[in-house]
Amino acid sequence: MRLLLVEDERAMAAALRKGLESEGFVVEHAADGPSGLQAARFGGFDAVLLDVMLPGMSGYTVVRTLRSERNWVPVLMISAKDGEYDQADGLDYGADDYLVKPFSFVVLLARLRALLRRDPVPRPSRLRCGPIELDPATHQVWLDDTEIALAPREFALLEHLMRAAPAAVGKEAIVDSVWGQESADPNVVEVYVSYLRRKLGKARIETVRGVGYRMAP
Length: 217
Ligand code: CA
Fold this sequence. Notes:
The chain is an alpha/beta fold. The chain has helices at residues 10-22, 33-42, 59-68, 84-92, 105-117, 152-164, 171-179, 187-200; strands at residues 2-6, 26-30, 47-51, 75-79, 97-100, 127-129, 132-135, 140-143, 146-148, 169-170, 205-208, 212-215.
């Protein structure tokens, strides 16, 4: 598996490269936005690890440009920026997943492998799961064509589950993606799943014992 790592912090890039190579990945490194974009266009990579804050061009612009050129290479964004807006921005621009620094290398590997298992497919601007439709750009959700009001965390959780569907997602991965470093308590996920079930119907989100949650097919 060939990976493109676009990261301007030297120490971070060196550590990631070393870790990924020891896991058997072939890693090519670009240290700024324009060279990362160029490498992603022509490098034939299986996935791209893309920092957000980069010299020359932001990671957001890199991924948006790739998608506008109909390049669907899996992109995992990594960033020191925090907060749900940054995360939503990255995903709206066409990234597949988003990790906030500092993250554990084990989590990075798990996310990366999940991405690599999927075939690169065009990202439709709206997500759909049975009767539920979600627009990441406008933050709107519909159930059977009726708009449903969701709090920001509820929305982020639903979006995470819908992007992962039909796969199940673990509580830890949900906490990491929806709450970042803010909350370490996986039980908060249960609470928010119950909120979503109340609004969308109990059967829409399934509990997968010992794993986590998934959208009903
Ligand atoms: Ca950076």
